[in-house]
Structure formats: C-alpha cells, structure tokens
Specification:
By secondary structure, this protein is an alpha/beta fold. About 35% of the residues lie in helices and about 25% in strands. Bound molecules: cytidine-5'-monophosphate.
C-alpha cells in the first residue's frame, strides 16, 4: 500500500493510450491511492467517463462549468486536498497548453490553478514526428524548467504504425514513477552498484552448484535506491525476477563473472555506493568437466575438486578510492556476534545481517545493521519496506564523513 492516504488527480487528454489508463487507475487503487479523474473532451472520444468512474469509484469531471461542485469551481476544489496531479496520456496540445499557461478547459485551468507546492507529473503520448517537432521539444523544455516532471516517453511501435519516441510509459512503469515521486531523493545523482541473487558454479555443461537466494532483497534495494534518485547498476546472478524499472542489469552466472562485471563497472564509472547482496559461492569446481559427467558404474562417484572464488566485497572495499561499501551476512545463528565480526573482517563501514534460512526465497525479512557505533535492528517487514529503510540508513551514513 505504497500510496495509502494519497489523493491523485488523474487527468486524461486525447490519445489512444487512454485505454491504458483504465489499468493505471486500478493499479493506483490497489496501492491505496484515491483517484479523482478529470478528462478533456478529446479524452472522452477514446475512453468513456463511465469506465473511468467505475474504475476510480469517483465522479469524473470533464467540464469547467460542472454544477455538481457546490461552489461551481471544480478547477479549484479538485486539487486542494490532492497530493499530486498526473496527466496521462499527455497530448502534444496539452504540453503546449501547460507551457503557455492556457486555461481554456477544466483540466488546463486546474493545472494553472494548482497550489504551487502540488507536484504535476505528465506522461507524454504522441506520434514520433509530433514528439520530435521542435515546437514540442521547446514546450517540453519549458514545462521541465517550470518544475513539471515529464515521465518518459518511451520508444517503440506506435498505434499509427510508425516507430520511435513518443509511446506512453506502460501503466506499471507509470505507477513506479508516481510512487517514486513521493520518495525523498536522498541519493540524487549518486551512482549505486549492487550484486544480487545466487551464483551458479558449473560442474559440467548441465549441472552446477548454486544456493537458495532468490535475489528479492537485492532487487528491492536496487529499486529503493532508484526511488531515492540514484543511477543504479545491478549485477545479478540467475533469478526469475524482472529487472527493476530504469535499473541497468548485467546478467552473470559464476562468482568470477560477477567479480569481473563489478570491476568493469567500477572502471567504467566511479560508483558512490557498492551494496554486495549476492549470495556468492565461496568455491567453484576446479575440475569442471567440458562434457556431461557419465554414470559409468553403480559404485563410481565423480571426484570434485574445489578452488576458492574471489571475495568481491573485500576486493572492492580494499580499492584505494573505494565506494561506500555495504556487505550482507547470512548467518544461521549468533547473528549479533558473527555480524559485528564479519564487518571488521570485510573492512566495510556497514554490514547488514540476516538469518539465511529465514529469508532466502521469502518476501519478508528482518535485518540487523552493524556499523562502527554498534548495531540497529530493522524489525520484520516485507523486503521492499526494509529496502527503503536500508537506503535511508545508507543515505544518512553517506552524508557523514567516512
Ligand atoms: O563471507 P560471507 O560470504 O558471509 O560474506 C557475505 C558478504 O560478502 C555478502 O555481502 C556477499 O555478497 C559478499 N561476498 C562477495 N564475494 C564472495 C563472497 C561473499 O562479495 N566471494
């Protein structure tokens, strides 16, 4: 319920993408938001106010002369208890209106009349040529300069049959952006690199050694860091999870590949924070077979030999210009004692401890944070909530001299 108690004024303008806003309206409701729909006349040609009223559960307004508002001022009253205005889809014409402060229908008037502190987010949706048109680009630059947040657009196939920039973001992406707009930008512009998931160490071409890490905690931290304004790169072992929106994901299999990918990223761009969440295999099979191992008799068993993998976290922490390093420790007992000891051993400013078999694959977890001044417990919660708390804790420590 990330938007519990929030009221979103959802403005629809003319565009085929209106059909996707039915989905967004439901999604906003599912995360706790109250949705007040306002439509331009053009929008009502693409989707009916009846549909939008049924999905939002609230009266839909389309007309600035609507007498159902007691003082007959819908352009004022509809935004006074709102937490954000979202215009989706936002047409070329509506961007023009916003850029020029037009007030010739309810939605445009309501935007101009919004309280100065009320965030306005727009999701452009238009043909590629309309998007690229210099007049549109001038207007987009103007509304950005005026503090309006422009979500997308994305590139791809368009309803008109052409291809390029101008597609509206998908409803789940818009929801992610809207949720993020309410988060403090405590990592604004910072580069955050993470490892997540298990590693997979081959025994032969069809078998390997892995572990029960699902990647959920690391992916949740990647998303939380992005919500806090960071530029996020996620080096991930094999997982079934979708890449978090707007996060760059580098897929690896083995610990060595994970190590190499992390080092390459550090070469490519200076990172401010490194969070090692992955459950990295300590050992790889030194005598992995090129061909599938065959069962030759009832008694023979393969003799596997092991070699130690590089410790990625320790290697990064030991670099001369190391980012702020956060390690994880999955223990099965004595968390307070082992966690504090592991922080010192890995030489990192912050170590996050959890009980491995209480968290692997689950949606919930509880964390203990170890730093130079002791430990702090983050009580049991879903992983996304914990990720947000952890990112806030990292941001606080990053702001201090370290
Ligand atoms: O020593 P241990 O495996 O318990 O340390 C866990 C921490 O170190 C985690 O943050 C994990 O991602 C990281 N790690 C690593 N490379 C390894 C082993 C662990 O980065 N080879």
């Amino acid at each position: 319920m990330r938007l519990a108690g929030k009221k979103i004024v959802l403005g629809l303008t003319g565009g085929v993408a209106c059909y996707k806003i039915a989905e967004l309206t439901r999604a906003l409701g599912k995360v706790g938001a109250t949705v007040q729909v306002v439509m331009t006349d053009a929008a009502t040609h693409f989707i009916t106010p009846v549909t939008m009223q049924a999905l939002s559960g609230n009266t839909v307004y389309t007309d600035q002369w609507d007498a159902r508002i007691h003082n007959n001022m819908p352009h004022i009253d509809l935004t006074r208890d709102a937490d954000a205005i979202v215009i989706a889809p936002c047409s070329t014409d509506f961007i023009y209106k916003l850029a020029h402060g037009a007030c010739n229908d309810l939605l445009s008037t309501l935007c101009v009349a919004r309280p100065a502190h009320l965030p306005l987010l727009v999701a452009p949706a238009m043909n590629v040529e309309m998007w690229q048109n210099p007049a549109t680009q001038r207007n987009v630059a103007q509304i950005r300069a005026d503090g309006i947040q422009v979500l997308g657009p994305a590139a791809g196939d368009q309803a008109c049959g052409e291809t390029g920039m101008g597609r509206m973001l998908e409803p789940d992406q818009l929801l992610t952006e809207i949720i993020a707009s309410f988060q403090a930008k405590s990592l604004s512009g910072k580069h955050v690199l993470l490892t997540a998931g298990p590693t997979f160490e081959p025994i032969d071409p069809v078998r390997g050694i892995t572990n029960l890490s699902s990647g959920k905690m690391g992916y949740a931290i990647a998303r939380a860091a992005w919500e806090a304004g960071a530029i996020v790169t996620l080096v991930s072992g094999p997982t079934a999870l979708d890449t978090p929106y707007d996060v760059r994901r580098i897929q690896v299999q083995t610990a060595q590949q994970m190590h190499d990918a992390v080092m390459a990223q550090l070469q490519l761009h200076k990172q401010d924070v490194f969070v090692a969440v992955a459950a990295v295999a300590d050992w790889r099979v030194a005598n992995a077979s090129e061909q599938k191992l065959k069962k030759t008799s009832d008694t023979d068993t393969p003799q596997l030999q092991f070699a130690q993998n590089p410790d990625i976290l320790a290697a990064v922490a030991a670099m001369p210009d190391a980012p702020y390093c956060v390690g994880f420790a999955a223990e099965s007992e004595n968390l307070l004692q082992y966690g504090a000891a592991k922080r010192l051993k890995k030489n990192v400013p912050l170590l996050v401890g959890n009980i491995g078999h209480h968290t692997f694959g689950r949606d919930e977890n509880e964390l203990v944070l170890f730093d130079a001044s002791g430990h702090t417990a983050l009580p049991r919660a879903d992983k996304q909530t914990l990720a947000l708390q952890l990112v806030a804790e990292i941001s606080l420590r990053l702001a201090l001299p370290h």
